[in-house]
Write a structure and sequence with these properties.
The complex is a heterodimer.
Chain A lengths: L4 H8 L2 E8 L12 E6 L4 H4 L1 H8 L11 E4 L2 E2 L6 H8 L7 E6 L14 H20 L2 H5 L2 H12 L3 H11 L16 E2 L7 E2 L15 H8 L1 H4 L9 E2 L2 E2 L14
Parallel strand pairs in A: 1-5
Antiparallel strand pairs in A: 1-2, 3-4, 3-5, 6-7, 8-9
Helix pairs in contact in A: 7-8
Chain B lengths: L10 H17 L5 E4 L6 E14 L2 H9 L7 H4 L12 E15 L4 E10 L7 H6 L3 H9 L5 E5 L6 E5 L4 H14 L6 H9 L13 H6 L12
Antiparallel strand pairs in B: 1-2, 2-3, 3-4, 4-6, 5-6
Classes of the chains: A alpha+beta, B alpha+beta.
Organism (chain B): Melopsittacus undulatus (Budgerigar)
Protein name (chain B): Ubiquitin-like-conjugating enzyme ATG10
Subcellular location (chain B): Cytoplasm
Chain lengths: 256, 229
Amino acid sequence: MTDDKDVLRDVWFGRIPTCFTLYQDEITEREAEPYYLLLPRISYLTLVTDKVKKHFQKVMRQEEVNEIWFEYEGTPLKWHYPIGLLFDLHASNTALPWSITVHFKNFPEKDLLHCHSKDVIEAHFMASIKEADALKHKSQVINEMQKKDHKQLWMGLQNDKFEQFWAINRKLMEYPTEDSGFRYIPFRIYQATTERPFIQKLFRPIASGGQMHTLGDLLKDVCPSAVDHEGGDLRFFTHCMDIAMCSHRIYHLDKR
Amino acid sequence: MAGEKDFFLEEKRFKQYCEEFIKHSQQIADGWEWRTNKDLGDGYLSKTHFQVRNRSIPPDLKEKCSDNIEQPLPTHAEEFLDDSQVAGVCATEEVIRYEYHVLYSSSYQVPVLYFRACFLDGRPLTLDEIWRSVHACYQDRLQEGPWDTITQQEHPLLGQPFFVLHPCRTNEFISSILTSSWKFNRHTNYIILWLSTVGPVVGLNLPLSYATLAHEQNTNTDSVERPLS
């Protein structure tokens, strides 16, 4: 795990340069300038855009300001997806900075979850952590932790504190020496083009013969049609890196 | 509770129970259907029903009404006025569309209830509005029930916002009920058991005839239940 620490740091500190522009139909008292921000890949839009909101509120009347939501080229952006995922899914082929449109009206009820406070983001984040541990450890590790440990995970994310976060998260990434790995690998495969938002299935890290499964094995098992050579040109990315179908061990890099 | 096994529900078993459930629903025209996802063959139970609800208009408008009955009401309240106006209380009836889905969680190995409601014009109800329509006797259960919270989440197959009863403590209450029913050697449909407990809390009721399903199944010699470990 110590060898991987550089990779863990690179993932944690990944940033996407973004330009926020107010939607043209929003009613303003003065012209709204765009706002530039480096967004952390591993965080959530509504957690890191307080400054964006304040910037645009300055040129708007209080009564025109409702729940903020974000859109890219007509697609409402799901704040509950990590920022890096949103970028890879919708904008990976376009030039930087990433151009996001900011809205305060006409909240798209059919597309987006509401996010009335930071508590909602925390609850969502912790639910993901818990579900991942249900898969990795039958929830034993997360349930044995104290509330303050859970809080430290969240505060680490919220305040961008790598060491604080990983002091707790490393326990969620360990397994007893007698086991060769987690019970199941927590993963999701997202596609922008389907109604179904993601594919998630039970997948063991060790094959019946005792050898370790590779990422290629997982993809073949979970979306066989995509891995077919005749199957067309679907490409797989993680953290904006194209994955080749080769035999690398599955790295549990993501916090989940 | 000591000595109880964990009764995790395998996905194959989930589908079998759902199949039984659908059959009975069709017999009594209870409106449940099985929907499949064409890509991966995942499926879920689905039910949509409409309810007409008496609704009092918000307090500020209510005051205007009771002061002067002749005062014209705002446009949205003009339709569906009933005789209670005479007593100085204004009410409108509204049609609400409820949707309930039962999905399988492979992470927790339990069924999960997803639900949402909206008015006919598409405006969704908030969780508070849904809870207000739940019968008073179930309001207490909301506080004490074997669930952590109801939260808004993305439906894993449709990608749209739904309310969800969090599944991580389902196993606790199911375990205690399943153990006692096995003492009497009864086939128990996990879905019926679970849904009849959690459903009413969110406005979903199962007619009593579902309970007879266990009775019919007892006569089948090939449906012996075994604890799942």
